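Propose amino acids for all 261 sites.
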């Protein structure tokens, strides 16, 4: 994870659209605000936090024309970072009310200091600090999050649960769309809106998670594991495994064996 910019104590007197860029931005809003996304507005009377994927058009302004006060971190993620966020069930592009911002605020201040001084363990410090923020958001999200009205959400949730329960299954978006009576493009759009990741990414990630479990706990060959995880091609399985884990299945197995000895 790479931190591009950290700004604290920002003030905006007028409404502000979230800047479009290819990276994620974490916001900690310190004043009441009105948040608008997809034509729908929601009022937040206290502090709130937001992880913006910078994909959708979003606008924020202070409540009753008062200045909007906030801190933010712009950061780049790897596929591993994104999957970590997904595994924590952290909402993207959805504000979360923050009952106590002490941990997040303190962490951001420490990150700002480290960002300016670039100490010996800078990268590790920033990685761990962001995870502290993610954990804090995860705990608060169980309260009363602002969720958009997503059509067919219950069906989508059942599909996602099934994907992670049966990663070896030959999943077909076309069959799912037929059963749901919706178009393929609409299905993919709804899926991303609901979970902050794509259907294809979830299928891949569920298979790699299952592969990791088999590599750790069985003596099955790489070919046998590839087949059990739903892959027809060993080379394609190894390619996707490396993309997700930054190592080969054999290297992963060796590391797991070393940790248990």
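Proposal:
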């Amino acid at each position: 994870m790479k931190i591009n910019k950290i700004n604290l104590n920002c003030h905006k007197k007028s409404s502000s659209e979230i800047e479009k860029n290819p990276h994620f931005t974490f916001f900690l809003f310190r004043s009441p605000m009105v948040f608008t996304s997809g034509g729908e507005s929601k009022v937040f009377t206290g502090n709130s936090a937001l992880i913006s994927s910078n994909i959708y058009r979003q606008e924020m302004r202070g409540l009753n024309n008062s200045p909007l006060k906030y801190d933010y971190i712009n950061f780049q993620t790897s596929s591993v970072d994104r999957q970590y966020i997904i595994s924590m069930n952290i909402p993207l592009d959805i504000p979360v009310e923050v009952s106590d911002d002490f941990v997040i605020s303190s962490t951001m201040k420490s990150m700002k200091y480290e960002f300016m001084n670039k100490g010996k363990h800078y990268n590790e410090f920033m990685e761990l600090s962001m995870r502290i923020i993610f954990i804090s958001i995860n705990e608060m999200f169980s309260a009363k999050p602002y969720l958009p009205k997503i059509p067919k959400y219950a069906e989508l949730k059942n599909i996602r649960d099934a994907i992670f329960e049966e990663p070896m299954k030959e999943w077909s978006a076309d069959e799912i769309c037929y059963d749901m009576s919706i178009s393929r493009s609409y299905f993919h759009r709804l899926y991303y809106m609901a979970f902050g990741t794509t259907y294809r990414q979830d299928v891949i990630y569920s298979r790699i998670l299952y592969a990791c479990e088999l590599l750790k706990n069985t003596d099955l060959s790489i070919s046998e594991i590839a087949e059990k995880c739903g892959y027809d091609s060993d080379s394609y399985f190894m390619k996707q495994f490396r993309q997700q884990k930054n190592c080969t299945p054999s290297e992963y197995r060796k590391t797991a064996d070393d940790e248990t000895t």
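DSSP finds ten helices and nine strands in the chain. The chain has two domains: 2-141, 153-260.
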